[in-house]
Amino acid sequence: MISFQSTPPQYDLSQVAVPTYLYHSPADLLADPEDVQFLLKTLPRVADNVKLRDFNHIDFVYGLRAGAEIYDKIIREIKDHESNTIRA
Prior knowledge:
Elements: E1 20-24, H1 33-42, E2 46-51, H2 59-62, H3 66-87
Parallel strand pairs: 1-2
């Protein structure tokens, strides 16, 4: 959707129906701590809230610790979810 607005549209995050996993760091200048707190209060199904030490925004993609501290956990969560879905 192209809105041509100077500010982004408002979304009702309380309607997000899927489990949400938040990964953030105080060192990430693009993830304002107030915004993170807003998400934690507003999203109805925060499945996990992971506060990472010394991660800036680009570290989430290229950081040497990203695999061990983020992606391995995400892959485990996906596999666990798939296993639980198949059994159900």
